[in-house]
Amino acid sequence: MNENRSVFALDGVTGMLIATVLLLSILGFLTYNAIVVQNANSNNFYEIKNETAIGSGIGFGTQADGTPHVTSKAEDHVVPVEVK
């Protein structure tokens, strides 16, 4: 007879039910938080200006004339829009 039993050795239906309940509770938690964040930011939108000049955000190296490579920043292109 097998006497090596442990409380963490949950096999079969019990282990499957515990895993299912755990995964469904994680899914419920993440779904609830996604809805809360979406509701909080639904009226907080912005407008993009000069979208053709948006750079990649990578600023390595120097340009041909020896000056450091400068990329565009988000605050140069994103304008908050106030909802009235």
Question: How would you characterize this protein structure?
Answer:
With 84 residues, this protein is mainly alpha-helical. It has 2 domains: 1-42; 45-84, no CATH class. Helix content is 35%, strand content 7%. It has one helix at residues 12-40, and strands at 46-48, 78-80. It has a two-stranded antiparallel sheet with strand order 1-2. The longest helix has 29 residues, at 12-40. It comes from Sulfurimonas marina. Keywords: Membrane, Transmembrane, Transmembrane helix. The chain crosses the membrane at residues 12-35. It holds the Pfam family DUF4006. InterPro entries: DUF4006.
Helix content: 25-40%
**SS-based class:** mainly alpha
Largest sheet: 2 strands, antiparallel
What's the multimeric state?
A: single chain
Q: In sequence order, what are the helices and strands, one letter per element?
A: HEE
Strand order of the largest sheet: 1-2
Q: What's the number of structural domains?
A: 2
What is the general shape?
A: elongated
* Proportion in β-strands: 5-15%
Number of strands: 2
Number of helices: 1
Keywords: Membrane, Transmembrane, Transmembrane helix
Protein name: DUF4006 family protein
Organism: Sulfurimonas marina
Pfam family, one: DUF4006
Task: Output the keywords.
84 residues, mainly alpha, 2 domains, two-stranded antiparallel ribbon, 1 helix, 2 strands, 35% helix, elongated, transmembrane helix
In short:
With 84 residues, this protein is mainly alpha-helical. Helix content is 35%, strand content 7%.
Task: Describe the SSE topology.
Elements lengths: L11 H29 L5 E3 L29 E3 L4
Antiparallel strand pairs: 1-2
